[in-house]
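Final report, Chapter 2: Outcomes

The project's central promise was a pipeline that accepts a single protein chain and returns its three-dimensional structure in a standardized token representation, suitable for archiving and comparison. That pipeline is now operational. To close this chapter, we reproduce one record exactly as it appears in the project archive, with the input sequence first and the structure output second.
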Amino acid sequence: MANQLTIGLDFGSDSVRAVLVDVENGAILGSCVQNYPRWSEKKYCDAPNNQFRQHPLDYLESLEVVIKGVMKGIDPSLVIGIGIDTTGSTPCAVNREGIPLAMLPEFADDPNAMFILWKDHTAIFEADEINSYAKAWKGIDYTKYEGGIYSSEWFFAKILHTLRASEKVRKAAFSWVEHCDWIPAELTGNIDPLKMIRSRCAAGHKAMWHESWGGLPPNEFFAGLDPLLDGLRDRLFTETYTGDKAVGKLSQKWADRLGLTTNVVVAAGAFDCHFGAVGAQIHAYDLVKVCGTSTCDILVAPEADSCIPGICGQVDGSVIPGMVGLEAGQSAFGDVYAWFKNLLSYAGDVKIGPLEQEAAAIPAGQTGVLALDWFNGRRTPNANQKLTGAICGLNLGTTAPMVYRALAESTVFGARAIVDHFKAQNIKINNVIMTGGISRKSPFIMQMCADVFQLPIKIAACDQTCALGSAMFGAVAAGRYAKVEDAMDKMGSGFDAEYYPNKEMGQLYEELYQRYLTFGKMMEQEGL
């Protein structure tokens, strides 16, 4: 008898990926990637003004493509579960029926009615307001489990900004949903916003949800922040669910559309990096870095005795149920390299590979160039999306490979700052695991990480760890495994490379890292 299968869906910034996985041994039997068509055309975005929006049809059309892609020649009856992760926070306004406003004809081309991508920073002013208000609020600081600093990348800052920016959306919006909640709801037909299953991961890390104060902050808090938020809490949610819980089974509509059966169990959603950490077989006090356009850093601990400042939240069950998930990250990583490539491309086609090879040939500390990686603001430590990238030490002899090396060093130094921040909060790090495209494509960057961190770096063997993690949660929700740890043991792909630190290089980089910290402090003090 053929083994049972699950599908893992990973909705990234630019595309959705699907993997078809054998639940007995983790073998990936099919993989498919589809770029979002409207997003690829840069529709509904205004990069100079930090506006990045995605149309819900991009998600639905693309998921249909990738699931059909991995199911070619496969018996549909073998598929028992689907797990789903998305970027986040990525909220969208919905009507009373739970339909995203952009799906309605009158909002079809309105960016304010679409999903607001994680990298959208139009709500910086609102985030500042939330932080000031929360610190002045009597009693509880509702940001304390969010690291003490609420970000413009998160749920309520984006909602408040949109309500202020669009009267049309304000009048039509009944509630708001996260992307990772809406996809499972849509697939199962459970889209009523008052009954929709909401992700513990999304709510805890981005929406100030915590069990100790009964879920979300009280309506009094939101109404005092802005009357536009008065009453919204009652139209959102109280309960949240970990990713191992079932939302329901695939609806007849979607079973027909995808060529699957209505026996398929759909798991509760979560954010990509959290499921990616599971796909990378995270254990207590491992630090998993999902390296892509940005990075998301995940660490799990059996417990956290105090609120850890300056990170992106600590949430019980956001990664592995029964453990505390700690999140950090960098707002730009691969995006920094892409920016430089695009800058140089005005003089002709530029390929990163040869440029990186030339940069790697330059001895550490010999360029004279120093850079800051805050091209999209700083996420961790201590979120500040107003900060910008910077390069200093240029002269007429500076070459493109020199600048590229400095930019690469800046991203690794930014990653080191996160490692140091955890250690300063008495959170130990036993292992560092890297996943994502950069971890597999750039030995130069990975060896630099090992040297700068002075820790070994393991590279996850699977190149789709987020989707694999989603498939694991699909297997647990479908009842094949009793807990996530069992699914990780059976379905994990292990590691296929490891980078070891060089002490001599570490000493060279330490001097550069201290200069990076000094440069960053100076630029931040100047408000640049």
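Archive annotation: The CA atoms of residues 97 and 366 lie 61 Å apart.
This record, like all others produced under the grant, will remain available to the consortium after the project formally closes.
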